[in-house]
Structure formats: C-alpha cells, structure tokens
Design goal:
Distance between the termini: 29 Å
Number of domains: 2
Oligomer: single chain
Strand content: 15-25%
Shape: globular
Structural class: alpha/beta
CATH architecture of the largest domain: 3-Layer(aba) Sandwich
Strand order of the largest sheet: 6-7-8-3-9-10-12-11
Number of helices: 12
Radius of gyration: 21 Å
CATH superfamily of the largest domain: P-loop containing nucleotide triphosphate hydrolases
Number of strands: 12
Largest sheet: 8 strands, mixed
Length: 338
Amino acid sequence: MFDKKETVLSVRNLGTRFMTSSGTVKAVDGVSFDVHKGEIFGIVGESGSGKSVTNLSILRLIPSPPGKIVEGQIILKGKNLLEANENELQMIRGGNVSMIFQDPMTSLNPLLKVSVQIAEVLELHHGLSRKEAEKKVVELLKAVGIPDAERRAQEYPHQFSGGMRQRVMIAMAIGCNPDVLIADEPTTALDVTIQAQILDLIRRLSDSRTMSVILITHDLGVVAGMCDTVAVMYAGRIVEQSAVDPLFREPRHPYTQGLLASVPRLDSAWSERLYSIPGAPPNLADLPAGCAFAPRCAYALPVCRNAYPPLTEMDDGQGGKRLVRCWLHTSENSGEQQ
C-alpha cells in the first residue's frame, strides 16, 4: 500500500467479535493493512483499541467462546490463514509467523529448562534431533545477547531477569526464521535501559534476516525510533495509517493529534501542562452510528455523529500515501459532506 516491496502479510476487512452478557463486543472491525518484507509495521493506540486482538486474530489464537473471527482475510504468502486447518496452523505458528507476548514469565513454562522449551520449537518445525536442537539453542541464545549461553541454556526461567527472559522469548520466536515476527508490547515492565536493548535487538534481527515485524505498542517514542509504517487504532478500527515521518510531522486525524500532543517534549516550557484527550474510550458493545471518536473530538461536524467516515487516501508529502478515516478530510476532498 505504501511501498513497492514484496507483501508478506495482507489483512483485509478483518472482523473479530466477543459474545458477552453485555452484548457483542466489536473488538476488531474492518481492519485492513499490508506488511512488506523487512518492514517494521507499528500498531499504536490506547488500551482496548484492538491492537492485541488484531494480532491474535492473525494467528487464530482468539479464545472461542467467547471470541470469533466473523469476517475478512489474512493472506500470508498467498494463503488465507482463516481457511487453514489445525495441522497447517500448528506449522505456521512459530514457523512462518512467531509472536513475542507481553509477559515472558507467564509465557515460559517454569518447570522446564530454557533449552527444552526452545528446542521443542526446532524439533517440531525443522525435524532436528534433540542433540542438534540443543546446539542450535545455544547459537540462538548467543544471537540475542545472552552471555555464557551454554550454561544459561540449562537453567529455568525463574533464574533469568525480566530482560533476559524477554531475550529467551525472542530466541524462541526467531528460531525457525519466521517471515513475520509479532511483538506485542515486548518491553512492558522493563526498565528504560533494557527496553532500549530489546528494541535494538529486534531492529538488528529484522535487518539481518530481512524479517517483517509487527510491533504493538502504546509508546509513540518507540514507534518513532523503530517503525517504518504506523497504523493508529481507535475503537477496533484503523483511523490513520502512514509512513512514520509524515505522521509525526503532520498528523491528520484528531485522535492521532491528541496522542502526539500528550507526549512530553524537550522543547516545551517546563510549566506547560501535558494535553489530555477529554472523555473516555467508547463501549465496544455499544458503538455509536457515527465516528466513535466524535464525542471526544474538538473538531466534530454534525455528520460525524450520524455516519461513520470512509477511508480517504491522501498524499503524505514524501511521494507516498496515507489513509485517514475522518469526515474533516473527506469534506476537503469531495466538498459533499458538510
């Protein structure tokens, strides 16, 4: 969409629902995007905006019940993952697409040595013997910067710090040279120094292996330093998508503007209060007919409360395209919705 490189993953009109006692929650509603080879694609938004559910849907890890993928396509190298059977999915997960979860302590089995847990992935997907797999485990731990890898491979997760456990998760995720690595807030609960090291590691691995990365985060600083393309999500939908530089230089959607305005800046006066987006995110089980952001938006038009805006394609000022879902920009382009 924004690049002429090979498209590895294409998500089209993805819809994921959760059937609850309070009604049907539209966690993901009509989400579409492309991830290109070697690209770091960021997905950003408030908690509850649908970031993690979107990516769990890609791997079909939505718990059912109460969750269900109700529509869309997830095309990985020409194959629709929504049509894959369980045996095919087992080989795709960890093989073609790997995921780093938020909390490495709950993602690792506390009863098994680190070497056993990583080796299991290699044995399943590459058919290696246990001896071959354990040799590869040491190489992977060295690749992610764990010192004394031979000894540490024989230790248990509780013997590792939070940052080192996250490196173990990355080693497990890259063991089969995946086409796409999904990193779901991989630096949550880590101190800033370790965060920088983990993010630098992901960037270097992406470059060296030409591996695509989907980076889920709420931290716009991480997006600015890591991503090539970014999609901003609100209430289960993408409201703006662009290359990173144009989006930070000139955000077009009022929600994106609010997110960027709420980030501390070094060039701001010390006494200046940080901006806070008014109101609260909507109830996804009872979305309004119009734009879900309209009740919090200072620029809302009458049409915003009655009809949901279509995606508008705009020039990003760098020879590329950006997508914005806002009546303000649709009005400017068509002159019809006033």
